[in-house]
Design brief:
- It is found in: Cytoplasm.
- Transfers a GMP moiety from GTP to Mo-molybdopterin (Mo-MPT) cofactor (Moco or molybdenum cofactor) to form Mo-molybdopterin guanine dinucleotide (Mo-MGD) cofactor.
- It comes from Rhizobium paranaense.
- The protein is α/β, with parallel strands linked by helices.
- Strands 4-1-5-7-6-8 form a 6-stranded mixed beta sheet, sandwiched between helices.
- The chain has a single domain, classed as Spore Coat Polysaccharide Biosynthesis Protein SpsA, Chain A (Alpha-Beta Complex), CATH 3.90.550.10.
- β9 and β10 form a beta hairpin.
- α2 packs antiparallel against α4.
- The structure holds guanosine-5'-triphosphate (GTP) and magnesium ion (MG).
Length: about 220
């Protein structure tokens, strides 16, 4: 039986990067922000919170993984972010039999909170509960803690639900939500889950990064 969360820093972290990057038109993980790839930035940020080694959930043909182990989706066909979550659960069940939960972070949100996993973990009261992040009234379920105990249910749902809406899967389980505040910067409030999906988002992210660097 897996143990329950004792130290949030021990929750195994997985970077979800198995998407198509269709709006960016190039692999989002490797676009540069402030001269550094999103992948490298996000790996550093999650590595500052988590002690277990970081796994990159992405297609098997990636060449530049900044040294991270590569874990392709268990189900073929790019079935969405929850296919990455499932892959992470299966991997953790093998490699971290003590872990009740895994942590997931997408590859395109470079400003996510430095206390993300600790705050999500604090809200979990039962070993089968999910915790997700929210800001400004919007949920960000790709930033989540997921119990490995629900892997079979997730697989059945992915294979059986054509729409695969994340909120429909969440409705099957107990979900704790944690609201994170805006980051105050000299040019205004920044959503910590600001998402780099398009080339224009990348330009905006450069502006936010410069503003953050001026923030005391
Ligand atoms: N493992 C895995 N991750 C996925 C899949 N689809 C999306 N993701 C990841 O989920 C996160 C959020 O998805 P999006 O922002 O839509 O990213 P995307 O699908 O690459 O981009 P678009 O093609 O422009 O929608 C990103 O980190 C993606 O890499 C998938 O089929 N498998
Ligand atoms: Mg996105």
């Amino acid at each position: 039986m897996p143990g329950f969360i004792t130290n949030p820093a021990d929750i195994p972290p997985y970077l979800l990067a198995g998407g198509r990057s269709s709006r960016m038109g190039a692999n989002k993980a490797l676009v540069l922000l402030g001269g550094e790839s999103l992948l490298a930035r996000i790996a550093t940020r999650i590595g500052q919170q988590q002690r277990k080694s970081i796994v990159l959930n992405a297609d098997a043909d990636w060449s530049d993984t900044v040294g991270l182990p590569l874990l392709p989706d268990t189900l073929p066909g790019k079935l969405g972010p929850l296919a990455g979550v499932l892959t992470a659960m299966r991997d953790a069940a093998k490699k971290h039999p003590q872990a009740s939960h895994i942590a997931t972070v997408p590859i395109d949100s470079p400003f996510f909170p430095s206390d993300l996993v600790a705050r999500l973990a604090k809200t979990i009261e039962g070993r089968d509960e999910i915790a997700i992040a929210a800001s400004s009234g919007r949920d960000h379920p790709v930033f989540g803690l997921w119990p490995v105990s629900i892997a079979d249910d997730l697989e059945t749902w992915i294979l059986g639900d054509d729409k695969r809406r994340v909120r429909d899967f969440l409705a099957r389980h107990i979900v704790r939500k944690v609201d994170f505040a805006m980051i105050q910067t000299p040019i205004g409030p920044l959503d910590p889950f600001f998402n780099v999906n398009t080339p224009d988002d990348l330009i905006a992210a450069e502006t936010w990064l410069a503003a953050l660097e001026q923030t005391p």
